[in-house]
Amino acid sequence: MGLLELFILAVGLSMDAFAVSVCKGLSLGKINGKHMCIAGAWFGGFQALMPLIGYFFGRFFSDYITQYDHWIAFILLALIGGNMIKEAFEKEECMDCSMNPKSMFVLAVATSIDALAVGVTFAFLKVAILPAVSFIGVVTFVCSAVGVKIGSLFGVKYKSRAELFGGVILILIGAKILLEGIGII
Predict the structure, then answer these.
(1) Which residues lie closer than 8 Å to 166 by C-beta, 6 or more apart?
(2) Mean pLDDT (10-residue bins), the chain, 185 residues
(3) Domain region containing 117
(4) Total tally of structural domains belonging to the chain
(5) Which end of the chain is more exposed for a tag (fewer CB within 10 A), N or C?
(6) Judging by beta carbons within 10 Å of its beta carbon (0-12, 13-18, 19+), is residue 157 exposed, middle or buried?
(7) CATH number, residue 106
(8) What torsion, rounded to 10 degrees, do the Cα atoms 39, 45, 51, 53 define?
(9) Long-range CB pairs of 59-66, under 8 A, 24+ apart, other chains included
């Protein structure tokens, strides 16, 4: 996986965290750099940790299913992307303005479950995991910090678009992996 593909994947994965960060910014109203860093650290940290965990699970099972790994990667990414697209069209949920560790932990886990599945696909694709998860974490940190700021300025206007964009990106990456795996590209 090249740097451009990894960047596109990282942006796609960070869209859930970005959308939640926008909502956090909206609910907080007036924010400062501390709010941006808290959101970035929680979301970026978990977006880096979850694919690492998924990678180790995937490495354990990869020897048993290498013949089908491209199909598994496609299915996982398509399901994750489809779910993000579905969420883009659902009714807005209420967001609390708390940034305490308990609420941030729950949000960070919820927004990074898709990254766990991506980590499994990384194992099948034999991706260099430490640079990849570090890159994903940094991209998500930046997107989340910016999301808090945007939320404080503009509100939830862009939340659905961010989720839709992220979902489409993940589905397209999954399709590319599948087409490469079956020898079309």
Answers:
(1) 11, 12, 13, 14, 15, 16, 18, 81, 84
(2) 89 86 78 93 96 90 70 77 77 63 86 85 88 96 94 68 72 79 82
(3) 3-181
(4) 1
(5) C
(6) exposed
(7) 1.20.1250
(8) -130
(9) 59/123, 61/123, 62/123, 62/124, 65/124, 66/124
